[in-house]
């Protein structure tokens, strides 16, 4: 154990078999089963390494809960759905969503809801169990696909899995908040001799220090992941994000539902975004692996390309626009009116500013959705020539209209 163990493990591996891709390095640093950052540390929140929107304000998760209810209504109120969250962190976001489901239980009364959490970190899954069930969970028998299960404080069954493929099929609403940015990326650099992949190696001058090098020739990844029409000189690609988006798109096409992805990112324009955070400060990505969160901006243009044939996509739309469309201003007014002391009001205004101000999280965070094609376009009208009711607009990407 100890903070140097992962570095020593990586150095042994690099000495034995040469440089590794940035993706392999990132995977080890974040999710190595013994020494990875999420496995051991996973410091989300004020006392940790990075803070996320659900940790800043309960309003964030509440509005996302309303998004699911609004889509559930727009899709004709199916009598059952699964809420599937990828990378639930501390469990706060799910908690806030379940509170909304409980407050609107009269609307959801005839609907059978279950929660399915995809989490690789044993440490964070314990935090989630504590938050959502008060610790009342049991490990699942080996022949079940979930590794743990419990019942939420509001009576909803919750299951934990390591992989999205383990989640049972069925009508599902998916959620990925600050999940895709934690998946391993490959990095590429344009050179005079063509594209080269950026690799991680040991620095020959300094013992136990890592450095970036370029592959001497092209690699399988440079052949497969760089588009011929690419104009940037430096490109980051996250194939694992592509695979997961394709899985979500297949499931939505087959069983119905929707996916909401929220993350910082760009639409295929940014270059070098790979960075580390420790104690809320930027941290050198190559130093002390396993002790800092490593992250890269999500390329939404890549996600859209991976999903498009099977589902419709909406966004990316800026967080401040999405939350405004969802009614955050009205929600803030109600909370301000209901709070008696100045300190609480101050806190409410501060967290609103954190989420909405373009200088804070308002502009750099984006919302992106996958929906079945028929959610936005009526199936061929020739079959049924009679006039159809118009499809309701998708909330968040348009103004919320609850009827
Ligand atoms: N959604 C939360 C947490 C974001 S941190 C929030 O916004 O606060 C990223 C989360 O993804 C953590 O829970 C981490 O353990 C999990 N994670 C990272 N890589 C994963 C993978 N490959 N499979 C499943 N979960 C993963």
From TrEMBL:
EC number: 2.1.1.320
SUPFAM superfamilies hit by this protein: S-adenosyl-L-methionine-dependent methyltransferases (SSF53335)
Cell compartment(s), UniProt: Mitochondrion
Keywords for the protein's UniProt record, in alphabetical order: Methyltransferase, Mitochondrion, Transferase, Transit peptide
Highest taxon of the lineage: Eukaryota
Key word Secreted present: no
Gene Ontology molecular function: protein-arginine omega-N symmetric methyltransferase activity
Any single GO BP term: mitochondrial respiratory chain complex I assembly
InterPro entries to which the protein is assigned, alphabetical: NDUFAF7, NDUFAF7_sf, SAM-dependent_MTases_sf
Catalytic activity, as annotated: L-arginyl-[protein] + 2 S-adenosyl-L-methionine = N(omega),N(omega)'-dimethyl-L-arginyl-[protein] + 2 S-adenosyl-L-homocysteine + 2 H(+)
Gene Ontology cellular component terms for the protein in this record: mitochondrion
Catalytic class of the enzyme: transferase
Transmembrane segment boundaries: none
Family designation: Belongs to the NDUFAF7 family.
Function (record text): Arginine methyltransferase involved in the assembly or stability of mitochondrial NADH:ubiquinone oxidoreductase complex (complex I). Acts by mediating symmetric dimethylation of 'Arg-118' of NDUFS2 after it assembles into the complex I, stabilizing the early intermediate complex.
Protein's name according to its UniProt entry: Protein arginine methyltransferase NDUFAF7
Protein source organism: Pachyramphus minor
Name of the gene: Ndufaf7
């Amino acid at each position: 154990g100890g903070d140097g163990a992962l570095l020593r493990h990586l150095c042994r591996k690099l000495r034995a078999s040469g440089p590794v891709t940035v993706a392999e390095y990132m995977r080890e640093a974040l999710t190595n089963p013994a020494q990875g950052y999420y496995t051991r540390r996973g410091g989300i929140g004020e006392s940790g390494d990075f803070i996320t929107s659900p940790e800043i304000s309960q309003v964030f998760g509440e509005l996302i809960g309303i998004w699911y209810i609004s889509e559930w209504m727009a899709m004709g109120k199916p009598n059952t759905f699964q809420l599937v969250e990828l990378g639930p962190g501390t469990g706060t976001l799910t908690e806030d969503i379940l509170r909304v489901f409980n407050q609107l239980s009269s609307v959801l009364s005839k609907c059978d809801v279950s929660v399915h959490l995809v989490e690789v970190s044993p440490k964070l899954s314990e935090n989630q169990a504590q938050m959502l069930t008060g610790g009342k969970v049991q490990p699942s028998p080996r022949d079940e696909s979930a590794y743990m299960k419990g019942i939420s404080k509001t009576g909803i069954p919750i299951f934990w899995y390591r992989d999205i493929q383990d989640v049972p099929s069925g009508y599902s609403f998916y959620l990925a908040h600050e999940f895709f940015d934690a998946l391993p990326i490959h990095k590429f650099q344009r050179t005079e001799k063509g594209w080269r992949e950026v690799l991680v190696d040991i620095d020959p001058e300094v013992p136990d220090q890592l450095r970036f090098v370029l592959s001497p020739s092209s690699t399988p990844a440079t052949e497969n992941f760089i588009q011929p029409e690419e104009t940037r000189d430096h490109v980051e690609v996250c194939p694992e994000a592509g695979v997961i988006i394709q899985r979500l798109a297949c499931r939505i096409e087959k069983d119905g539902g929707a996916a909401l992805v929220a993350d910082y990112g760009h639409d295929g324009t940014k270059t070098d975004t790979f960075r580390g955070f420790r104690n809320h400060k930027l941290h050198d990505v190559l130093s002390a692996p396993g002790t800092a969160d490593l992250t890269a901006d999500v390329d939404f243009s890549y996600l859209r390309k991976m999903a498009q044939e099977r589902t419709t996509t909406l966004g990316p739309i800026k967080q401040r626009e999405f939350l405004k469309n969802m009614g955050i201003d009205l929600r803030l007014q109600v909370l301000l009116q209901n709070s008696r002391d100045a300190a609480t009001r101050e806190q409410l205004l501060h967290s609103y500013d954190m989420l909405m101000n373009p200088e804070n999280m308002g502009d750099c965070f984006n919302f992106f959705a996958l929906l079945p094609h028929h959610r936005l376009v009526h199936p061929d009208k020739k079959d049924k020539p009679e006039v159809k009711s118009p499809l309701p607009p998708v909330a968040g990407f348009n103004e919320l209209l609850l009827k």
